[in-house]
Amino acid sequence: MNPRLRPVGLIARREFASRVRGRAFVFGTLAVLVLLGAYAAVLATITAGDDTARVGVTGPAVALAGPLQRAAPTEGVTLTVIPQPDVAAGEAAVRAGDLDALVGGEPARPRVFVESEPPADLERVLDDATTVVVRDAFLTGRGVDPGALDAALAESGPVIVAAEPPDPQAGPRLGLGLAGAFLLFFSIQSYGAMVAQGVVEEKASRVVEIVLSSVRPWQLLLGKVLGLGAVGLLQLVILGGAGLAVAGAAGVLVVGPGLVTTLVSVVVWYLLGFALYATVFAAAGSLVSRQEDTQSVLSPVTITVLLGFVVGFNLLTSDPRGAGITVLSLLPPFSPLFMPARMALGVAPAGQVVLAFALTIAFTAVVLALGGRIYANSVLRTGARVSLREALGRART
């Protein structure tokens, strides 16, 4: 390893180890995992339940068995038709909860026996099946083959030709992109502030003076950013992996090449965005020496990120191709938040992605340079708040 980077690695490892072993990280991560586990258990209970409607038929109403089974899928109902020996046995099965309904009497106007009232979707299935029976009887009485009419109707209707066929995975991939934006926003608010608070604590306790006797300010800054960035990435992997597992178990998410690409882009943009914002927070934290003054220097950054996130989220969900979200996703401070989601939807041309990435890299480099200078000029100054003009002066080494 380069001798100039060895201290950076040591500082990053120290920050990573101290934060990962801390109660806030452990209990916070466990709390979210418990919530995800509870959500998965609820989903499993719901999906494990018997959602099949059971309908008994008896007497002449047995003729409704076929129409009932054909009508059920159109109403989104899973239906099992069970013939009953007589009305009394069928009604007893309904009272015992073995049947949801008993259909008897004439097929054109059947008598439906239920315990209380039939579900709306089951009632629609019964209406559809009765209508089919009456129609078929009417057509047959006039010498028209109902099957031939159904075949002719099946071959009719408009043929939809879409310039851009719908992507069945667009929703899940957009969800991943928005989840990445939220996790980055969450990390900025939590770990970014943690970087600033750590800087202020070291200044107040004079620990930073001991540390800087062995390393340069830029090495300390970079080590903090890398260490806490690794903590945020670890939590992203844990929570993201658990969330993907829950979504997969619920059948909401099907892993495919598009989803893998989206996941990779979310991680890459997350790392880039965290490096950018963590540097800003560290530089801002170095301007003050007391914890009670920290919020005053962090507020402009957090408010800017919050407003950008709210505006961009609304623009993205309403019109992902619009000029507003396009411009916002190209601006470096907000590219890591919204470009992954636009990439997931397939509405970001390759040129825009490359441009946003290049601009973000360049902007991050400028922020690192300015942040390093501010940090170097401010981190050893205690007492009164350091003005931005003084912090941007000639860097101390």
Automatic annotation (TrEMBL):
It is found in: Membrane. The chain crosses the membrane at residues 174-196, 225-255, 267-288, 297-316, 353-376. The keyword Transmembrane helix applies. Residues 24-371 form the ABC-2 type transporter transmembrane domain. It comes from the Bacteria. Keywords: Membrane, Transmembrane, Transmembrane helix. It is a multi-pass membrane protein. Its main location: membrane. InterPro entries: ABC2_TM. This is ABC transporter permease. It comes from Actinomycetospora straminea. The lineage of its organism: Bacteria, Bacillati, Actinomycetota, Actinomycetes, Pseudonocardiales.
